[in-house]
Amino acid sequence: MESSSGRRSAWHLPPTYPEFEAYWDTVVTTVLTDNPQARQIVEMALHPPKFARLQWVPDPIWTFLTLPVTQLIRAGIMMGVPDSTYPLLGFEPTRLDKVQLVAHKALWRSIPRPLAKRFAPTYFALRRKYGTPLWRTEFSRDTLAANRATCPHAPVAS
What we know:
Mean pLDDT: 77
Number of domains: 1
Order of helices and strands: HHHHHHHH
Radius of gyration: 18 Å
Helix content: 55-70%
Structural class: mainly alpha
Strand content: under 5%
Shape: globular
Low-confidence stretches: 1-8
Number of helices: 8
Distance between the termini: 16 Å
């Protein structure tokens, strides 16, 4: 849903969790399609690009440093979408992923909710300050406009 300013808003989401589950099932089964943009988002999430100021870090060390974040994202994918959509995203969970998912759920249940709620805002604030956020490069207005023509389900501008 778009606001009066033309920006997308989350205010249209269902108010209760059971209603959201039904909504999300519909989105995943009818909206999510195999396309380069969806695969690119998953690829970039599972293999995060280096921050602009950390290009000097060797790739193996960067992979090791980002492992906690990528494992968190892998767990999020496994919790957020049904198994049947993994191929659409180019995602294939391993046995280790499934074990880590159990541990991940246990860990987040043990962290006090006020502290757990600060994780994402803190992470994105650090990305904004020290990184090259994807919304300025891969998801800039110009890049999205150029890619829109290749997406078969893109809304047509009026």
